[in-house]
Design goal:
Helix content is about 5%, strand content about 40%. The protein binds alpha-D-galactopyranose. Alpha-D-galactopyranose (GLA) binds next to strand 24 and strand 27.
Length: about 375
């Protein structure tokens, strides 16, 4: 018989190295032409799991435990492929080439004008009428040394949605012990724009709306917009406005403020402090205690509080998504950067490799 101490040491070692299960692939649905669309489920040893669709790079489900181990699905989404193929506000999708708006659907790059197909009035939103949210990526799952992952690969040809250059994009979703990490990598054979983001709608309660969630955003300023949600070019301090989340505050506290009347809630870009990969926002559901920390290397964050949701959008399990059913924390270069001389650049040149990371962390301590 082995001494008890030996058995205990073995148990502890096994627990410490608790392997995450390998990614599991399954068919999520079929396109009208019969092509199957796959999904990858990643699971870790801490009760978290995530399901990522090849179409749209959608995070379809993200299960996260609370302090008592009770798990909830903290993202909005749909049960079947047909629902994703119908019109919806980018629910859970990977966005590209350019997140948010390009005013007048045009820009000048290295002295040459480019005209894009518009899809929101005269402007282009979230990469155009057939943005990356509607593409089928090639999925490469991996058990990984420390964390299971799936790499989604997409070739966006020269001229795709009006953008110059053939773009090779890789988006890797990795399930860490307490986080979903997203790494973007892109190259292009001509100068172009690249500004991908992820459009998950979070609701840490897994039900109801997010008005009671507490939010902190590490931003002293935001970029005000005109009636068509195009930045005016101004960078305005949040101090004394409804945009001030420098101290954690309930999302619902100021939703009725006059500054939010035109947008019927938050739909604004925050000018994030600092640079490099850093924590830029924290969200907490006081009821369950679940928390989300957003870490990114991007200079901006779009806070969007699902202002147009009116209960007609039926999500997973037939749940009607009403106003503020979730909120998006879209890490990005500031909107309309290509037309705003004072804004950070989103230009990618041939020979360069674009790399960016966003981590959605759900701390358990
Ligand atoms: C972003 C935009 C919003 C809206 C949503 C999706 O957050 O800024 O205006 O388009 O995506 O509807």
């Amino acid at each position: 018989m082995r001494p008890l101490s030996h058995v205990l040491v073995t148990i502890v070692l096994v627990a410490m190295t608790a392997e995450a299960a390998p990614p599991v692939r399954h068919e999520f649905g079929r396109l009208p032409d019969g092509r199957p669309v796959g999904a990858t489920r990643l699971e870790n040893a801490h009760g978290m799991s995530v399901t990522i669709l090849d179409r749209g790079g959608v995070v379809q489900a993200l299960h996260v435990p609370d302090a008592d181990g009770r798990t909830a699905d903290v993202v909005l989404g749909f049960d079947d492929l047909d629902a994703y193929r119908r019109a919806h506000p980018y629910v859970g999708a990977t966005i590209g080439r350019f997140a948010n708006r390009i005013a007048g659907a045009r820009f000048v790059l290295e002295g040459r004008p480019w005209v894009l197909p518009p899809n929101e009035g005269a402007h282009q939103l979230h990469g155009g009428p057939e943005g990356f949210d509607q593409r089928v990526f090639e999925a490469v799952p991996s058990s990984g040394e420390e964390a299971p992952s799936v790499e989604l690969r997409l070739t966006s040809p020269d001229g795709d949605q009006g953008f110059p250059g053939a773009l090779e994009l890789r988006v890797t979703f990795r399930l860490l012990a307490d986080a979903l990490r997203i790494d973007y990598e892109a190259t292009s054979d001509a100068a172009t724009l690249v500004n991908p983001t992820h459009h998950a709608y979070f609701n840490l309660a897994g039900e109801g709306d997010v008005r009671e969630h507490e939010l902190w955003i590490d931003a002293e300023a935001f970029t005000p917009v005109d009636a068509e949600l195009i930045p005016t070019g101004e960078v305005r301090p949040v101090e004394g406005t409804a945009f001030d989340f420098r101290q954690p505050r309930r999302v619902g506290d100021r939703l009725g403020a006059h500054e939010l009347r035109a947008t019927r809630g938050y739909d604004h870009n925050y000018v994030l402090r600092g640079e490099g990969l850093r924590a830029v926002a924290r969200l907490r559901d006081p009821e369950s205690g679940r928390r989300l920390v957003v870490e990114t290397d991007r200079p901006g964050l779009q806070l969007f509080t699902a202002n147009g949701f009116d209960g007609r959008l039926l999500g997973k399990g037939g749940r009607a998504y009403g106003r503020h059913a979730g909120l998006c924390l879209e890490t990005q270069v500031w909107p309309d950067a290509p037309n705003q001389p004072g804004f950070p650049s989103a230009v990618l040149r041939p020979g360069e490799t674009f790399r960016s990371t966003t981590i959605f962390r759900f701390p358990s301590d």
